[in-house]
Design goal:
Largest sheet: 5 strands, parallel
CATH superfamily: Response regulator
Number of strands: 5
Strand order of the largest sheet: 2-1-3-4-5
Distance between the termini: 19 Å
Strand content: 15-25%
Mean pLDDT: 93
Structural class: alpha/beta
Order of helices and strands: EHEHEHEHEH
Radius of gyration: 13 Å
């Protein structure tokens, strides 16, 4: 089984680093989609199957928080695991995202190992939930 991943960040460098990190993994990867903001991410999610979303919080047009809020209200999108990848350290902001159902919070700056460990864990947890 291959996994499709959506990387949502307004920084081309961060998207490139995330894709490179994922490419180093032993995961069988399908397509790695990219979006520069929440609105673009929603468009991808409406037309493509995605196994996990890696999203920044602070982006123009539509923030990661707005994206996650909209995803959580959708019957299908609300089941897609979301990992927030952000330098955000505000506990109230992170707590709000956890209430919306995010699976993990990966702090910037990150290492490729942290990305791989987090994505592997989230995919394993999602597989366990769907098997039960």
């Amino acid at each position: 089984m291959s996994y499709s991943i959506l990387v949502v960040d307004d920084s081309p460098l961060i998207r490139k680093m995330m894709k490179r990190s994922l490419g180093l993994s032993s995961l069988q990867l399908g397509t790695i989609y990219e979006a520069t903001n929440g609105r673009e991410a929603l468009a991808v999610l409406e037309r493509e199957w995605v196994d996990v979303v890696l999203a920044d919080i602070h982006m123009p047009v539509m923030s990661g928080t707005e994206l996650i809020e909209l995803m959580s209200k959708d019957q299908i999108m609300g089941k897609i695991p979301v990992v927030v990848v952000s330098a955000e350290r505000s506990e109230p902001a992170i707590d709000h995202l956890k209430q919306l159902g995010i699976c993990a919070h990966l702090m910037k700056p990150f290492t490729p190992e942290q990305v791989l460990e987090t994505v592997n864990r989230v995919l394993e947890e999602a597989a366990a939930r769907s098997a039960s």
